[in-house]
Amino acid sequence: SSSSSSSSFSHLVVNNANDSRKWSSIAPIKKCIFDVGIGLLAASVLVLSPLEANATRIEYYATVGEPDCELTYVRSGLGYCDVSVGPGKPAPRGQLINIHYTARFADGTVFDSSYKRGRPLTMRIGVGKVTKGLDQGIAGGEGVPPMQIGGKRKLRIPPPLAYGPEPAGCFNGDCNIPGNATLLYDINFVEIYSGNRSLPN
């Protein structure tokens, strides 16, 4: 009985020693795989991170651009043209509406877009809640017809109707929009919005 116990114990020790060698040989492999994974993650972060940390404007590339059309300029300096006139109601002053838009600088660089965020912007139009150029360009006035639901329009907004001489869109000292910037907008008037539901066309 004592001999049998001793033999079993020796067999257990040998098995444990073999298991230990097996795990000790696997551990460096696991560590190597883990290290490679961390390295790839760090590399991907480096690739995806901007090299210029002090960039003064945000650039979005995956956005929607409408076809060109010939701009008409009105006395205020606003330029507009309809890519397509919508079949729905005109933009109601003072009410909330949903629009999709892409905003660019005069050189064509995109600095903001609702398409990038994947949802339209809800805004109150015609009552000074947005820039004068957007109010006039969407709600109409001074020779500009109001947009209609479903319509698409291009706007060229000069600095006095945009943000003027002061930079805008500033956060922690960085400003997305420089002073005296001319802004280009592609507007898609999606719907009238009220509360938690959209009003019918």
From TrEMBL:
Top-level taxon of the source organism: Eukaryota
Keyword Disulfide bond part of the UniProt annotation: yes
This protein's UniProt keywords: Chloroplast, Disulfide bond, Isomerase, Plastid, Rotamase, Thylakoid, Transit peptide
Record's keyword annotation contains Chloroplast: yes
Record-level GO cellular component terms: chloroplast thylakoid lumen
EC numbers for this chain: 5.2.1.8
Localisation: Plastid, Chloroplast thylakoid lumen
Domain PPIase FKBP-type stretches: 94-193
Lineage: Eukaryota, Viridiplantae, Streptophyta, Embryophyta, Tracheophyta
GO MF term set: peptidyl-prolyl cis-trans isomerase activity
Organism, scientific name: Pelargonium dichondrifolium
Main enzyme class: isomerase
Pfam family membership, one: FKBP_C
Reaction equations catalysed: [protein]-peptidylproline (omega=180) = [protein]-peptidylproline (omega=0)
The protein's name in its UniProt record: peptidylprolyl isomerase
